[in-house]
Amino acid sequence: NLRQSFELARGTPGDGLSWSPDGTQLATVVQRTLTIFTIHGGRSETIDTGSRPVSYPLWVLPNEIWYESGTDNGGQMLRATR
User: Fold this and answer.
1) How far is it, in rounded angstroms, from Cα 82 to Cα 24?
2) Which of 28, 30, 37, 57 would bridge 67 by S-S if both were Cys, CB 3.0 to 4.6 A apart?
């Protein structure tokens, strides 16, 4: 229920939260999975990124999010399109 308050992430600003270019959606990482929250309507959507852990999403275009995928020992930047 997105109408209740809860903590999405803890860390410095920019560590895992990224607003969509139009400001209506928020990309974040929930349990190592890329998740999109719609601000109006209270919906959430999980983006399939495979089985590797996800971190640091960055919304670059209305339908494109870049993110880091991998482990602490080395990751790579990938992109998800919607």
Assistant:
1) 15
2) 57
Instruction: Give the number of other CB atoms < 10 A from CB of residue 14.
Output: 9
DSSP letter at 42 equals: -
Read off the tokens for 51.
Answer: 């089985």
**pLDDT at 20 (0 to 100):** 93
The answer to whether 3 touches 42, Cβ cutoff 8 Å, is yes
Beta bridge partners of 53: none
CA–CA dist 40, 68 (Å, integer): 27
What average pLDDT values come out for the chain (82 residues) when binned by 10 residues? 56 69 91 87 86 87 90 78 82
User: Of 6, 47, 38, 45, whose CA–CA distance to 20 is shortest?
Assistant: 38
Site of tokens 């852990």: 53
- Res 75: pLDDT: 77
